[in-house]
Design goal:
By secondary structure, the protein is mainly alpha-helical. The chain has 11 helices and 3 strands. It folds into 2 domains: 143 residues, Orthogonal Bundle (Ribonuclease iii, N-terminal Endonuclease Domain, Chain A), CATH 1.10.1520; 70 residues, 2-Layer Sandwich (Double Stranded RNA Binding Domain), CATH 3.30.160. Helix 5 crosses helix 7 and helix 10 packs across helix 11. The protein is globular, with a radius of gyration of 19 Å.
């Protein structure tokens, strides 16, 4: 059996969430990965994803009142993507709190971005079930209160593959190539190791994701970071 989180840590987490559960079992469920057993957090994650998108939509609609719909959609996508949710989950102290099966524990699941991002969405879903939308929305607002909401976010709102492609096209260079160099994990929960290569630079970078697509995005982000550190 996997790791069990004690009641004391749940109490501390509720303090950080600024939400005291009427039904603490919802929080325990939100912090239970499918590898731990049949009672897991995926349904809460589904619910939390919807709550998160609506709350973030309202937040940026108010904060960025001059932006058109298309730009708002890109900003929202940037805010609810795995990387952002992973950082927020770390800030909230979820690393080490998710109940995992032994195999997932051994493979480093406690630190895996996808697991922590999903757990955060499940926590949001659990607050929604426990106390309603207003409480869940207030939690989302607190989680994102330190995130930049200015129009300058638009530069970061493009996904890494799009940003890299536009950078290369502006120089009339070839588009990058992506290839999967390895996979790990069970068939239903694989991790993809993807390489991104820019021919003109004779440079390649790698990224890891829970799907080929997310692996490509991670590799493109790594390439962008290399380009910023090595101006051309």
């Amino acid at each position: 059996m996997g790791k069990v989180t004690d009641d004391k840590s749940h109490t501390a987490l509720q303090t950080r969430l600024q939400h005291q559960y009427a039904d603490p079992k919802l929080l325990a469920l939100a912090l239970t990965h499918r590898s731990f057993g049949s009672g897991h957090n995926e349904r809460l994650e589904f619910l939390g994803d919807s709550v998160l998108n609506l709350a973030v939509s309202k937040m940026i609609y108010t904060a960025l009142h001059d932006l058109p719909e298309g730009d708002l959609s890109r900003v929202r996508a940037n805010l609810v993507k795995q990387d952002t949710l992973h950082r927020l989950a770390l800030d909230l102290g979820l690393a080490g709190m998710v109940r995992l099966g032994e195999g997932e524990m051994r493979s480093g699941g406690q630190q895996r971005p996808s697991i922590l991002a999903d757990a955060l969405e499940a926590v949001i879903g659990s607050v929604f079930l426990d106390a309603g939308f207003d409480a869940a929305q207030a939690l989302v607002f607190r989680l994102f209160e330190k995130v930049d909401m200015s129009p300058t976010m638009m530069a970061a709102a493009k996904d890494p593959k799009t940003e890299l492609q536009e950078w290369l096209q502006a120089r009339r260079w070839q588009l990058p190539t992506y290839r999967v160099v390895g996979t790990t994990g069970a068939a239903h929960q694989q991790t993809f190791d993807v390489e991104c290569e820019v021919p003109e630079l004779k440079q390649s970078q790698r990224g890891i994701g829970s799907s080929r697509r997310s692996g490509e995005q991670a590799a493109a982000l790594a390439m962008l970071q290399w380009l910023r550190e090595n101006p051309q």
